Amino acid sequence: MKLNYKWTMKDDYPTEKNGLKVFSCFACGGGSTMGYKLAGFDVIGCNEIDPKMNKVYVENHNPKFNFLEGIQTFKLRDDLPEELYNLDILDGSPPCSSFSMAGNREKDWGKEKKFKEGQAEQVLDTLFFDFIDLAEKLKPKVVIAENVAGMLVGEAQTYVNKVLNEFNKAGYYVSYTLLDASNMGVPQKRKRVFFTAIRKDLYKGAFVDLFQSEPELKLIFNNKRISFGEIEENDKNRKKLSPTYVKHWSNASKRTGYTTLKNGNTFGFYYTAIRKKVFVTLTAGNSEYGIESEPVSVNNNEFIKIGAFPSDYNFLNERPKYLIGMSVPPLMTARVANEVKTQWLDKL
Questions:
Q1: Is residue 25 annotated as part of the catalytic site, yes or no?
Q2: Where are the domains of the chain?
Q3: pLDDT value at 99 more than 60
Q4: Catalytic position from the list 25, 28, 46, 96
Q5: Fewer beta carbons within 10 Å, N or C terminal of the chain?
């Protein structure tokens, strides 16, 4: 299994699949889908509410089953194909802005929100439970859910406890691990929580002699950390930063990579790529990313490498930074999926 941040869909997906099937929810442009494919899994379909993101997903991944609708209605369908009731993994990355440290957090909990693409309004912090409802309905062998590190901070820990309780009631043993993409071969400091759950009846049957307690998936990664200097391109035609950013660029470049400016009730984030350091977390918002030597922008090819996206990915009319900033890096999912296969699925 080749896992490198420089790759292409055309050349680097395994020619032989492992025979295991995945369905992806909140699929966006397919960050996790590409990870499963790199690990040899067959991703048979997706569920996504955003028509623009779904169009990009279909263009790049050609899913067998494609459901363009909110998970709230998708989970209630009584016409789902039989293959979805025989999944090895149900994957999902519920929208995470309600728990992001860069967002309003508790102030937004319970409120209906929508993204700029014109999606239907939805209460973001309940989507995780809709996802668990779907898992209870489809009964996949394993469920993998990814979310922001902010879920483990402050009052959000109460929410995590509720997630664990709902998985338990749905018939799954579940645990969670905080992972940093920079330790997994991704040129970016991106911390994400991975919830990994296995159906209780399968665990008791296959692992009863191996474990004395509930199952734990060991996720320990120590890949070489990749600095921005290693991926920087020789680009003499870089886009100039906005005047607002330039005012704060020097402060950002003197620090570890970012600075903030409070303007009323909002914060502006100004990021700078430091050549000797790993790139900061790439966000989907309007933040700009400069380079320490002069006030010019990181380019699209660098954003693609920072997100460990394939160089032949077709973004259609979407900005690479935006789509990549909303996506889990494929290499993160690939490494987690490989461990799930080795430690759990291969033993069933």
A1: no
A2: 9-225+328-347, 228-324
A3: no
A4: 96
A5: N
